[in-house]
Amino acid sequence: MSLIIERSGALASLQDGGRFGVRHLGVTQGGALDWVSQGWANWLLGNPPDAATVEITLGNVTLRAEADTCLAICGADLNATLDDQPLLPGRSFTIRKGQRLTFAQPREGVRAYLAAPGGFAAAPVLDSCATVRREQLGGLHGDGRPLEAEDRLHWNGTAPAPRELPTGQPARLLPSGPLPVVLGAQIGDFSGQSLFDVFNSDWTVDQRADRMGIRLLGPVLRSTRQSMISEGVPLGAIQVPPDGQPIVLMNDRQTIGGYPRLGALTPLAVAQLAQCLPASVLRLKPVALQSAQQEQRRLLAAWQQQPVER
What we know:
- The structure is a single chain.
- The chain has 2 domains: 2-164, no CATH class; 179-290, Cyclophilin (Beta Barrel).
- The radius of gyration is 20 Å and the shape is globular.
- By secondary structure, the protein is an alpha+beta fold.
- It has helices at 35-44, 192-200, 267-273, 289-302; strands at 2-8, 12-15, 53-57, 61-65, 69-77, 81-82, 85-86, 91-95, 100-103, 108-115, 152-154, 163-164, 179-183, 203-209, 213-217, 231-232, 237-239, 247-249, 256-257, 261-265, 281-282, 284-286, 308-309.
- It is built from 4 helices and 23 strands.
């Protein structure tokens, strides 16, 4: 039971829920940037939410089935086709031996997640198969390499019955309003004008964006803190370097940082930001920690629901 990759750029990788408990060793988290879409793709097949999927960034991937099975796609609309027939995200589908699954170019969003029964198989490195290229960890071969042509992807389970997303659950995750930010310990070090600008201005997603961080372009932010000792940085941390343009730290971020931080995006906001193409315009809003935690619990609880058969 396998899929063979016939074509792949440098931006397709095997990702699970990430690598935890190792940041004291300087090893970063990794894992799916849009962990929500990954979770729903796995949910459609009855997998654990953090089971290994293929994260396909900006398309340019073709896979051929070497056995009949049921797969699922969630996340970005990358103009996917199954033997040249359109295939929208947010659903599971049957693929037959010899059929080709192709992801072309983005129509909406950046990253699509392809799930297989039981999750894709790869040897864990530090309890995770998440691909982190910089650290040469994880992935199909354990060395951090992205997926390449001629790689074979195997999965761990048997094909389930096709499923549908719950009513009201969108097939694609994109910002529907300002992205919520939990304020951080250094928020008081920023000028009053900067704090006003952060939450009352448009921010443009820069082309300097990858799995480590996404730079936002907008008003110049100023901090009164001239220097600080490097400290641990969480997922979604919003660092402000000397040029005053904030950088949102993503899954492959460094484990410590020495720039002042406005706070951190909520996990859901991180997933939404991961689907924003360069030149996308967005806004930020402050949110209480308790509200962010409640939002997270509601989403995790949704995955405990039983899928509905077609």
